[in-house]
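Researcher: Next entry in the queue.
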Amino acid sequence: MVEQVIQNCGDKPSAVSADSQYNTGSELAAMEEKQIDCYLPDAGQNSEAASSPEATQEAIARVHEGQALSESQWAALPRNNKKFFDRSAFAYDKKKDEYRCPAGQVLVFLRVKKDKKKWGTAERKQYGGCPSCAGCAHAKSCCKDPDKGRCLSHDQYEDHRERLRQRMGTDEGREIYKRRKCIVEPRLGSLGSGTSNTTWVCGDS
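Model: Structure for this entry, 205 residues:
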């Protein structure tokens, strides 16, 4: 679609916005190569969560700072489409190659798993093996089986996703993404309803 915009308009957009289905590592890498900023939720995260309130951002910031959370901050942590704490609520330490959960416990590197995707092969590093999950008061909000604990993974494009999360975590990033609901979604709804004979071309504005 970006290539079509360039072909139709003779210039590239400075930024693109879409829902989480377009958040694949290879696409993010391609956009960075074109020097185009992306504004998308994490894969599996709903669009409303992308415009998360200040309380959510404050709770995530405390996790990344290694600070304890109050009950209200635990409640403010973002959830994924399975209703568990979203991966954005976990802090990744690149030097130690491990994750830290909101409770301050460590998920260590376990293995590398290769998955075939439409865009190629994902080399997915998996993390988990935390014995504290079984006794954690928040385990039911974090993992399906507390005895096995939470497992996280990331592929070779994690650095690209982290840069996107940082962009989406700013006030500016959230405001830019909110524009999509007002500008793009109503036009698609009108087209789908069959009540409008107007043809819309949605691009960067």
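Model: Residues 195-205 have pLDDT under 50 and may be disordered.
Researcher: Noted, moving on.
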